[in-house]
Amino acid sequence: MTVITDMKNEYSKIEDREPLLVISGLHKRYSEGKSNEVHAIRGLDLRVQKGDMMAIMGPSGCGKTTLLNMIGHLDRRSEGKIIIDKIDTGKLSDGQMTAFRRDKIGFIFQLFNLFPFLSAVENVETPLLLQGVKAGVAREQAKMLLRELGMGDRLYHLPSELSGGQQQRVAVARALVTEPSIILGDEPTGDLDSTTSTDVMNLFRRINKLTRQTLVLVTHNRWIAEQCDYIVHMTDGKISHVEQGPFKTEEESK
Ligand code: ADP
Ligand code: MG
């Protein structure tokens, strides 16, 4: 049974192995032209196929967060080209960029960044309301997703009334609810204990298999990285090498 499912997954992967993200010649300089200029990304090329689950690792300060912010278009690049879902983002107007970010990108932060005065379901429905989805429909979709993530009995709790793992589930639901093309996580499990991290990673894997959404995760944790299809290693604002999975999981190596 699982073999057949796996084969189907493999087959569908081969069928539409199209690049979801293409980065070429990317540079980012902070305080450009000033004496304190920092050259954080130094000519980086990267290709991520649709449905890939990719980890980024590397020493502190090597540019992981900067790269993620460039992919998420939270910050401007200095040079280079980024194509996401066939859209050359350098050609978008400000208005188009706002819509692009809202519709194509899902961001999950380490510190969750939930709205503290909104309940779980209100946090999750907000991106849909911003897209102009009708309130009743948005509420139903938010509820459905939270139930799917095992949060059905916490719909109306405030973030402060939830555990770290539960808050992260809400943050994951909020990033997924608009069905973005690419989901970006900057150490999304960094503040969680190991059991909860495992839960969140299992969740990511399930979502990735189910929806074939592309996932890019920055992590310091080798075990987390090994849950991905491959690991991109960065040093000094560049990719040093790529480790191709599948990696041995803890279960298999026992
Ligand atoms: P990482 O996430 O891998 O730890 P970052 O992307 O945060 O690395 O940082 C890469 C480099 O850019 C570091 O030298 C950092 O000090 C610098 N940097 C990051 N953000 C800024 C900023 N807003 N202004 C100036 N320098 C920055
Ligand atoms: Mg960082």
Key structural traits:
9 helices, disordered N terminus, globular, 4-stranded antiparallel sheet, binds magnesium ion, alpha/beta, binds adenosine-5'-diphosphate, 6-stranded mixed sheet, Rossmann fold, 254 residues
Structure, described:
With 254 residues, the chain is of the alpha/beta class. It has one domain: 3-Layer(aba) Sandwich (Rossmann fold), CATH 3.40.50.300. 38% of the residues lie in helices and 25% in strands. The protein contains 9 helices and 10 strands. The strands form 2 sheets. It has a 6-stranded mixed β-sheet, sandwiched between helices. Helix 4 packs across helix 5, helix 4 packs parallel to helix 6 and helix 6 runs parallel beside helix 7. The longest helix is centred in the C-terminal third of the chain and has 18 residues. The chain starts with a helix and ends with a helix. Adenosine-5'-diphosphate (ADP) binds next to strand 2 and helix 2.
Write the layout of secondary structure elements.
Elements: H1 2-15, E1 19-30, E2 38-49, E3 53-57, H2 64-71, E4 79-84, E5 87-88, H3 94-104, E6 105-108, H4 120-130, H5 135-148, H6 164-176, E7 182-186, H7 194-211, E8 214-218, H8 222-225, E9 230-235, E10 238-244, H9 250-253
Parallel strand pairs: 3-8, 3-9, 6-7, 7-8
Antiparallel strand pairs: 1-2, 1-4, 4-5, 9-10
Helix pairs in contact: 4-5, 4-6, 6-7
The structure holds adenosine-5'-diphosphate and magnesium ion.
Residues 30-31, 38, 40, 58, 60-66 line the site of adenosine-5'-diphosphate (ADP).
